[in-house]
């Protein structure tokens, strides 16, 4: 983690970089090229530069200011995490969107730099339209340039796990045929699948590529897929991370490729009869334009896998129930450790309770990872929305002697507690 002095120096270097290229503002994004809701910690550029850890947050850097953007419920978290020495302000993006904020402050003819590879086609089309009305031009900044300026951490390389059909309820081949039926009904030749959870569901794979020690994690791996209307599919990923037996696990009809090979395959299938579905919310703008450049005409539509995977197989439901039982038992045991003391409730650090609860969860033989940090809060923090105790923000105490005390899941961590077991997703 950078010091306040290092962060201030990087922000100044970003300003100099923008100015040298005639740009009035530079927009940094906590996101990845897959448009994930919960990007990995190395991809959270805004956290790296300010301490603000929310996925999807943006940071607008101008000559005289730096403003972080995220939705209103994260205002308290921003105040807690952003280093006050940086002079970074906070703006609720659901009250004033980034494009509106820029349009109201920049003169006509101004230019704004943005790493468009980390924003979806949906976001970029709306932002460009809004800025064009104000006479402001949005320009792409490459990831390599941002990496060189910010010293953004390298992405983690975790192995890909094969998710057995006895817990998924259906094989990869069965799922591909279900998707193929949806493509036939829609009149598509193929579907480009960019959503990481959709790829994980379709191929029955899991991973540890997202999240980090201080942010939400999701048991998926970084990969894309091209699914054909006849049920065949191409999986694009880091092939070195696949375990032995992967080809047999996927079954006949699946070809394996490195990620950069997507463009060549798209070029080979391009033509007047090729109609390929793409989800604009999960396709980054740079990828979309590159595929259009090789002659692939997209049909923008919602990912059909989102609906298919929402209908849970009996095996998935059984796994979720077992996960909840394990998580509930861990929670009860944690409460006993806190309150079963002759001298009264123990005074513990919030992060220590959260860490201990994770250790209790991990005893399950099918435990994979903590998906959403347990909500542990004492005193007035127990009433805060989206409060997560963290090593990034000190270690406040919790315990009954402090008044209000909450430890458990709420909606987010209940959802995530089912993600901590291989059997549940």
Comma- or semicolon-separated keywords:
425 residues; six-stranded mixed β-sheet; 16 helices; disordered C terminus
Would you give an account of this structure?
It is built from 16 helices and 18 strands. With 425 residues, it is α/β, with parallel strands linked by helices. Strands 4-3-2-1-5-6 form a six-stranded mixed β-sheet. Strands 12-11-10-8-13-14 form a six-stranded mixed β-sheet, sandwiched between helices. Helix 14 packs across helix 15. The longest helix is centred in the C-terminal third of the chain and has 26 residues, at 314-339. The two termini are 33 Å apart.
Total strand segments: 18
> What count of helical segments does DSSP give?
16
- Strand residues, percent: 15-25%
Terminal-residue CA separation? 33 Å
Question: For the CA atoms, what is the radius of gyration?
Answer: 23 Å
Note the overall shape: flat
Arithmetic mean of pLDDT: 86
Parts with pLDDT < 50 across at least 5 consecutive residues:
392-403, 409-425
The percent range for helix content is: 25-40%
Biggest sheet statistics: 6 strands, mixed
| Structure class | alpha/beta
């Amino acid at each position: 983690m950078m010091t306040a002095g290092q962060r201030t120096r990087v922000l100044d270097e970003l300003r100099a970089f923008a100015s040298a290229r005639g740009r009035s503002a530079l927009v940094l994004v906590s996101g990845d090229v897959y448009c994930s809701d919960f990007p990995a910690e190395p991809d959270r550029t805004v956290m790296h530069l300010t301490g603000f850890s929310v996925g999807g947050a943006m940071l607008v850097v101008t000559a005289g200011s730096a403003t972080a953007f995220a939705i209103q419920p994260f205002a308290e978290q921003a105040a807690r995490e952003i280093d006050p020495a940086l002079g970074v302000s906070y703006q609720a993006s659901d009250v004033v969107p980034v494009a509106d904020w820029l349009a109201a402050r920049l003169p006509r003819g101004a230019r704004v730099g943005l790493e468009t590879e980390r924003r979806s086609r949906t976001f970029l089309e709306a932002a460009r339209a809004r800025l064009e009305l104000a006479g402001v031009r949005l320009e792409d900044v490459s990831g390599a340039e941002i990496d060189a300026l910010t010293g953004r951490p390298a992405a983690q390389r975790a192995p890909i796990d094969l998710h057995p059909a006895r817990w998924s309820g259906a094989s990869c081949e069965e799922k591909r045929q279900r998707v193929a039926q949806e493509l036939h009904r829609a009149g598509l030749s193929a579907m480009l699948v960019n959503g990481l959870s959709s790829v994980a569901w379709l191929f029955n794979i899991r991973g540890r590529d997202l999240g980090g020690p201080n942010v939400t994690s999701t048991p998926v791996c970084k990969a894309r897929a091209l699914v054909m209307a006849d049920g065949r599919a191409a999986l694009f990923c880091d092939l070195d991370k696949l375990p032995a037996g992967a080809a047999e696990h996927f079954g006949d009809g699946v070809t394996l490729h490195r990620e950069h090979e997507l463009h060549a395959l798209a070029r080979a299938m391009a033509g007047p009869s090729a109609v390929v579905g793409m989800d604009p919310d999960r396709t980054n703008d740079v990828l979309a334009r590159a595929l259009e450049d090789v002659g692939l005409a997209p049909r923008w539509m919602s990912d059909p896998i989102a609906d298919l995977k929402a209908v849970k197989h009996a095996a998935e439901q059984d796994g979720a129930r077992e996960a909840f039982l394990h998580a509930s038992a861990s929670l009860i045991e944690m409460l006993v450790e806190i309150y079963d003391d002759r001298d009264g409730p123990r005074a513990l650090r919030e992060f220590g309770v959260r860490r201990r609860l994770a250790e209790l969860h991990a005893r399950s033989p099918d435990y994979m990872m903590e998906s959403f940090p347990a909500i542990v809060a004492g005193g007035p923090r127990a009433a805060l929305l989206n409060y997560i105790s963290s090593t990034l923000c000190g270690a406040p105490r919790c315990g009954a002697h402090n008044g209000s005390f909450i430890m458990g899941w709420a909606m987010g961590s209940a959802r995530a507690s089912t993600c901590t077991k291989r059997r549940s997703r």
